[in-house]
């Protein structure tokens, strides 16, 4: 099988980590019978500055027509307001209907603060405040701006199903004897329905209904108001297995969870739709370290694994995770964000040799 | 001077901690020349169940006409959707135009995880998604619900001014020789304007303009996107002094910050308007421990201090903070959430004897 992969480095350190993603795909053993072809694609703030469009139509069309999956690096957010600029990753998620943003956060070795962590945040990826329907008008005392937060039954149902499937899959992997801090699958539904009774109320109710389906019988279901979710995430992170949340809460929770394992540079994500997945490291473009060759490639390498999982190549994914975990457990070849001194290049080499 | 204080215990442990608030006011030394009169007022889920209204008109009118300040306990959120019920504290904040929610989070002694913390979250308290303008309609694939997120220049400006004033006040207190981890006042503006360019963009721009006024010359101003704010809050909490945020982010950030100091049971808040303040512990009604007499009264006692600060009784406030810090530094009479065995009553006694 040949998988056709779009490579969208974007801005900043996106350009330093996406090549690492390509390298690990090329280094997978031939016994897997997997081949890859690559297409370089543009997006990001620099693309916007050159062409007036942060997400060229060509990028979207190539992904739709000629790719099975993709890797996305990062995009710079302009530090002041720039007319007409709008985040290409948010647009891409919607245009390809990548309705789930899956973000596993796992401590390897002793973890950092707060002990063992092995959870995954399943974030709705197409609606909520990310519909970006905003308007501004003049009020009696200055400007007033409004944004729409939209929650649909359909999107809430499918994201909760995705959370259910992921909880079952994690349980299956544990049954193969993989070490784990969890005994039993658990999905935690996060919302703020004590204030937003209709929107978050719909999310909560729909998610509960989805998870009450008989195929999810073996899964424990709990819920948490988003503010206490953040509190509990920090107090007892080991209690959580799968967390499902609307778009914005998922965004915030995944950065919060990343803080628990020492560095955003470790945390991968996949933007997942039906039959398509884009791997994307959770760190941003990191202008403070760009161009120095010291970006942590781990988040990208793990995102490659995640992308493969969702393209039904679980075996290849498992090999990548194992190689990455080996690097972290040994803890000798680490990038500066992890307290080490290795360069991006050296971390990649160390992981590749463990494949 | 006699201050007229409304007491609104609400539900759950609110009823166990608000009496502690009253007791510390009554125990203040007569040398302060402060007297208090108290009025008991109803609000909460139980009030709703009895009367069909979670926030009786009488409570609002009494606060407006006969009180200088108030203490609010907590309200239970129903675990399933209840027709017509709506959170009384959110309504109260709006009805009394208590536009700032001020939440100081401070580690005493060694703090808990992540080292020293001494920050205050200044949360806009009247708008954002808390305007609760929602609607639900039928879409092609099931229900769709929408909520309005509203950000105004006026509310953003006054909350940023409040943050500036608080930063200056904290700096003044430090100059009197109070021990502190901060050298220089800093205000961090939190937003998500990379996605919400109009609403959060307006908040960001207005806050920056407010803080650029000459009276705030000595204050450092930074900004953080809300997701990285949560990340950084956990990685380097000691870096933050004053954090100003729209309503919902402020809600989430303050629970996050509470996790850093060991217990929500320590974190106070004040809902502040022009000439009126309601002290409110940040913990909720805690149904799991209600009626057992073991609720931590510290958050309420500190909220009493905060209320007094905003009613221009800084000296009385400082005495309360000192007594509370004494209890925590000694660390002998602590409630169960802090790993101790003391009952609410005993913690209160221990603080009172330090006044
Ligand atoms: C860059 C930004 C638009 C994006 C988001 O908010 O989704 C990022 O924070 C992420 O989590 O992927
Ligand atoms: C109870 C709830 C409505 C409230 C809020 O969201 O403001 C609470 O979380 C708080 O922080 O005071």
From TrEMBL, chains A, B:
Source organism (scientific name): Viridothelium virens
An MF annotation (GO) of this entry: isocitrate dehydrogenase (NAD+) activity
Gene3D superfamilies: Isopropylmalate Dehydrogenase
EC number annotated for this UniProt entry: 1.1.1.87
Name of the top EC class for this enzyme: oxidoreductase
Protein name: homoisocitrate dehydrogenase
A Pfam family hit: Iso_dh
Family statement: Belongs to the isocitrate and isopropylmalate dehydrogenases family.
Swiss-Prot/TrEMBL catalytic activity: (2R,3S)-homoisocitrate + NAD(+) = 2-oxoadipate + CO2 + NADH
């Amino acid at each position: 099988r040949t998988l056709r992969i779009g490579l969208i480095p974007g801005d900043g350190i996106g350009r330093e980590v996406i090549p690492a993603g390509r390298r690990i795909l090329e280094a997978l053993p031939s016994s897997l019978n997997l081949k890859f072809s690559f297409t370089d694609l543009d997006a990001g703030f620099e693309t916007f500055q050159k062409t007036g469009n942060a997400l060229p139509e060509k990028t979207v069309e190539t992904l739709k027509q000629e790719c099975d999956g993709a890797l996305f690096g990062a995009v710079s957010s302009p530090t002041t307001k720039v007319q007409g600029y709008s985040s290409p990753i948010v647009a891409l998620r919607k245009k390809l209907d990548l309705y789930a943003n899956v973000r596993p956060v796992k401590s390897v070795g002793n973890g950092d603060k707060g002990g063992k962590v092995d959870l995954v945040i399943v974030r709705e990826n197409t609606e909520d405040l990310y519909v970006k329907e905003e308007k501004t008008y003049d009020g009696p005392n200055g400007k007033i701006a409004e944004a729409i937060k939209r929650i649909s039954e359909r999107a809430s149902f499918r994201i909760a199903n995705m959370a259910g499937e992921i909880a079952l899959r994690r349980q299956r992997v544990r049954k193969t004897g993989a070490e784990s801090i969890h005994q039993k699958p658990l999905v935690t539904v996060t919302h703020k329905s004590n204030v937003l009774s209709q929107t978050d109320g719909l999310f909560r109710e729909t998610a509960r209904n989805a998870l009450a389906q008989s195929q999810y019988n073996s899964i424990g279901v709990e819920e948490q108001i988003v503010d206490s979710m953040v509190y509990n995430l920090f107090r007892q992170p080991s209690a959580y297995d799968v967390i499902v949340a609307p778009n914005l809460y998922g965004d915030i929770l995944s950065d919060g969870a990343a803080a628990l394992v020492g560095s955003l540079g470790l945390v991968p994500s996949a933007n997942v739709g039906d039959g398509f997945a884009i791997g994307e490291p959770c760190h941003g473009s990191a202008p403070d370290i760009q161009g120095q060759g010291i970006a942590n490639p781990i988040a990208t390498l793990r995102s490659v694994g995640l992308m493969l999982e969702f393209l039904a190549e679980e075996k290849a994914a498992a090999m990548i995770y194992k190689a990455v975990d080996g690097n972290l457990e040994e803890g000798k070849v680490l990038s500066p964000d992890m307290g080490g001194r290795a360069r991006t290049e050296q971390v990649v080499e160390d992981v590749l040799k463990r494949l």
